[in-house]
Every structure is written in C-alpha cells, then in structure tokens.
Design a protein that fits this description.
It is built from twelve helices and no strands. With 216 residues, the protein is mainly alpha-helical. It is elongated, with a radius of gyration of 19 Å.
C-alpha cells in the first residue's frame, strides 16, 4: 500500500473517531493492568461491570495479594477464564510488591514478567496508563489491519511490527483506538457493514468482495 493511501486511512479514521480511547474504566495503572488481564476473551463492557464493584473493595496490589484464588474467583466469576485470571492477578500483585515496591513498571520487558501479561496487555498499559507510544494488537486491530491491506500476516507480532513501520509513531495510540472503534461499529468480524464504511474505497477486503481484484 502506498504512503498516500495509508495517510488517507489515518486521516479518515482520525476524523471519524477523534475521541477514541480505551473503554476500560480505571483510575490507576494498576487498575488498568487488572482490567486488561480480565478483558482477555471478554468484552470491555463486561469487565467494567465487574470492576465497578471490585475496585471499590480492592484497588492496590496489597489488596489482591492477600486474597485466596477462591475469594477472587467469586468476585470475577461472570468473566471468561476467571479461574486462570484470578491466579494471574494474585500472582502479579505479589510480584509487584516483592520486586517493584507495589508500583506497575513502565516498560514492556518488566511488564511482561508479570503473570498473565503478554505483549498486548503490556502495550495497552504502556499506551493508556503511561502515554508511551505503543501499538497494541487486539482482535479488532489484527482483523482490520489485514482487511484493509495495511499488513499481510496471521501472526500478531508481525502485524504489530508492520503497523509500527507504516504508521507515524506519534499516531500509534490514536490509530489503535480508532481501529478498535471502527471494528466494533462497522468492520465487524462476521458481518462487516461495508456499505456504511468510510474506508470502503481504500479497503482490499471490500474490493475483493466486489470482485475488483483477485487474491493473486
């Protein structure tokens, strides 16, 4: 894809979603860390329903570190994979106390040492809590980047690397949020609303759908 086409996509998304941001509700880097761990294979809306009550009771590593897994499981049982997530959050809380004086580290390498924290979760915390330029790749970003033709890869880390090369660094965070907003509203996984899409003229997926280009 040519730079002019990429610039057009960035500008259209920026204009359509000028206020795009994470939908997770949090008041500290630690709360965002917990919310992001909980969000795996779960909607942000469901996470917010759970954390609305959870964070009133527990909102620091010291609070979670003394809980048993069963205690935390009861609090988050409406969330998918809640048993694993309960274990991860408690273990991560203990490690934050032991190694980081209870503070969430602000670099990817250290974040990814925490149980339950992969590259995407680390990038979300860096981008949203610490305002560091990062390109988190969730299912929406992965899907749209490939459909639009910005990247061609079935590997998440390759998608991240390719997007970071294509998108100006100071636009990474906004672009990430805009892709997610567009994925939720228009470019849905099973039934994309191509007829309502501001990017239809720029989209490889749509052009293939209409038979304008082939897969070769």
């Amino acid at each position: 894809m040519k730079q002019e086409q990429i610039k057009t996509i960035i500008e259209k998304l920026g204009k359509e979603y000028p206020e795009a941001r994470t939908e997770l509700i949090y008041s500290s880097p630690f709360e965002l860390l917990v919310a992001t761990i909980l969000s795996a294979q779960t909607t942000d809306k469901q996470v917010n329903r759970v954390t609305a009550g959870l964070f009133k009771k527990y909102n620091k590593p010291e609070d979670f570190a003394v809980l048993s897994e069963k205690e935390l499981e009861k609090e988050i049982s409406s969330i998918g994979l809640y048993r694993n997530k309960s274990r991860f959050i408690i273990q991560a809380s203990k490690l934050l106390i032991e190694k980081y004086q209870g503070f969430v580290p602000d670099n990817r390498e250290e974040l990814m040492k925490l149980p339950g924290v992969g590259r995407k979760t680390a990038n979300v915390v860096l981008a949203c809590a610490f305002k560091q330029n990062a390109m988190p790749v969730d299912t929406h970003v992965f899907r749209l980047a490939n459909r639009l033709g910005l990247v061609r890869s079935d590997k998440v880390e390759e998608v991240e690397e390719q997007l970071m090369k294509l998108i100006p660094e100071d636009r990474w965070i906004n672009f990430h949020h805009s892709l997610i907003a567009h994925g939720r509203k228009v470019c849905k996984a099973r039934a994309p609303l191509c007829q309502n899409c501001i990017l239809a003229d720029d989209c490889i997926y749509y052009k293939k759908k209409r038979g304008e280009i082939n897969d070769s």
